[in-house]
Write a structure and sequence with these properties.
By secondary structure, the chain is of the alpha/beta class. The chain contains 18 helices and 27 strands.
Length: 542
Amino acid sequence: MKKLAILLVILLNGCDLLKEKVDLVILNANVYTVDTEFSKAEAFAVHDGKFVAVGTNDEISGAYTSNQLLDADGRTITPGLIDAHCHFYGLGLTQQIVDLRGTKSFEEVLVKVKNFQDENPSEFIRGRGWDQNDWEVKEFPVKTELDKLFPDTPVALERIDGHAYLVNQKALDMAGIKWDTKVKGGEIVKKWKNGYSGITGVLIDNPMQLIDAVIPEPSLSEKIKALKDAERTCLNYGLTTVNDAGLNRETIELIDSLQQANELSIRLYAMVSNTKENLDHYLKNGILKTDQLNVRSVKVYGDGALGSRGAALKEAYSDQPNHFGAMITPVDEIGMLAERIAKTEFQMNTHAIGDSANAVVLRAYQKALQGKNDRRWKIEHAQVVSSDDFIHFENGIIPSIQPTHATSDMYWAKDRIGAEREKGAYAYKTLLNKAGMVVLGTDFPVEKVSPFLTFYAAVTRQDLEGYPEGGYQNHQALTREEALRGMTIWAAYSNFEEGEKGSIEVGKFADFVILSDDILKVPAKTIPNISAELTYIGGVVK
């Protein structure tokens, strides 16, 4: 009997010797590979940071052995999630200033700013997140109370969409902004009613740059902290790649250095901010690509945002006669930029919210690309599109959309643009049918970071209370499979990275997330409660 036991051990050890040793084996999982067939698997093996085999439990356990063997116990695994449009660095910086999201009145904003300054004294007070559309009085505030509270300390409070500031008089003085200051591509809001006459302190789009010029630059330690704080937040939600929609060369190089030093793990697709200095450097030197960083696109701002009435519309705003919004980048400049970028390998990604801005950008793309449908240029947001402009998305232009924008804006969108134009707003299914794909993001910190809220909004078109019943323009909802593709393989394709990420397939980076629930099958109302239990980048848990 003893000899038999020894023989069995030898045989078992011999079987292991016949198996290939890898870094990680995961078994008993509910794996959505998101490959071309959207096939499922039970297990996979990882070695040197990549998937080396994907299949059934028997196939993987019979061929591979590892010191790291994880029994997933039936949990759902998807490819690492990709946020196709966000402000990663901005998220980190925002975590160091006054958080004004969710405030229900201007009075609440003032209280939060005062309390923050009392606890964290600063020579220049900054905050972000207010939205007058969430207040009982849905009008832009004026700076009077800020001037009383902070007569000698400059204050700049950024609207939730990043397209407007509320500043006090001290900040206006520092920036040299007066009654007769003129800036194209935006508005210095003035008021002559309700007992107030003068500059209100609200600056929309391009005039904000005058304030930016006097805001103190963060220290190197503050920048590094911002990047690391943002990474931790993203990893906690299962994000393994983020597309930062607008970075300067200095920040890109800082990110690269941190990644090279193994101090930053998340993969990043960097859109270069449209400045002369940035374009002269990157368009001349060409694409910068590592396993963690991809710099091959230019971020351009077409117009402003709908919530601050800065989006450029073909007809006047329904709730503000004779007001059409504004182009941040002039029409002729967008055309010239498109022509210049088309001569390089770089991608052009342009923010376009209003129907006029979308028309301008789509036509500029079409002219510059001259039928080259494989350049993967993107329209960031594609929020309000005229019925006769959807056809342009059939020419290889990719819509980069943010589903939570629809469910954030649905309460007031009709007031802004009227019922007829609303039919072409947040039209995700129409965009998908025309373009063949949509890529999904959040635009955080404009919206919350959670990709599960993105998924929920995409498939239900409802807020967290289930409003409206049946969903907002529910014919524009995506299926769950479409939404997951938009957050994985389609997003990777839009970044020219479909060969290395976006699906769980042999040869690709082992970026994946283990979820608390089956995102394809749980009741829709529970989707927002899904959590990322473990996030892996290159086969290593983060």
